[in-house]
# Entry
Amino acid sequence: MDDSRFLEVGSGSLARRIGWRRIDGDGPDLVWLGGLRSDMASTKANHLAAWALARGRAMTRFDYSGHGISGGRFADGTISRWLEETLAVIATSVRAAPILVGSSMGGWLAVLAARRLSGDRNAPAGLVLIAPAADFTECLIWDDLGPAQREAILTEGAWMRPSAYAEEPYPITRQLIEDGRRHLVLGETLALGCPVHILQGMADPDVPWRHAMALVERLASDDVTVTLIKDGDHRLSRTQDLEKLVEAVEAIAATEPQTKAP
# Structure
C-alpha cells in the first residue's frame, strides 16, 4: 500500500508538491535526507524504514523537488530550495528533537538544517551523516571542472554531467552553483549543539574521505564520531554498511530521552 502524503512548499510560480512518508512510533524521530538524484526508496532509506517499523520507531522520509514522486524539475533545484523543503517536512511531520540522517548531499542539508533549527523545538538530537558532501557544488564540482565545462555553465546555463549511476547525464546549472555559494560551511566553525556520527568509505570516488575530514575539523566543538570503512564506496549500501548505519542511529538515539508515540 502506498502511504505517501504530499505537502505544498513555496507559493506562486515557486510552489512545488513534495512527497513524504511517515512511520509513527516512539522518538526521537528519524528524518532521512537523501542524496543528489536519489529518492526516498533508495536501499539505505528502505533499510532504515524497515528497521524503524520493526522497532516501533518514528521515521519520516521525503523526496526533494525534482526527485522521486515530488513535483518540479530537477534542473530548477538549488540548495536553497531543497533546504526549504527539508525544513517544511520537519515542521510538518516531526514532533520534537529529530535525528537527521543525511546521505551525500543530504549530509550537507542536514548540517544546514541543524544550524537553522538551533534553539527551535525541532533542534536535532543528533546527526548521522553518510559520505557528507558539504559544499559539493563548489569543492567537488566547480573546482574540478575544466574551462570548457565552466564556460558552458556560465554562458549556456548548464553543463550535462555524466553519471556513474545512470545512463543519462544530468544538468549542473549555473543557479545550482551560484546558490550553493550562499550555503558554504567548510570555511567556518560549526557548533551544531548535538552529537554527529559520520560514516565514510575510504574507496569513495565521489566524496573523498579527506573531504569528510574537512567537515570534522569544522565540527570540533561538537561530539563527533567518525567510522571509516576502508573498502567502502560512495553508496555504502552493502549489508555490513547498512548494519553500521543502524548502529550509528541507535547510538545517538540511546543518548536521548525516548518519547512514546501517542
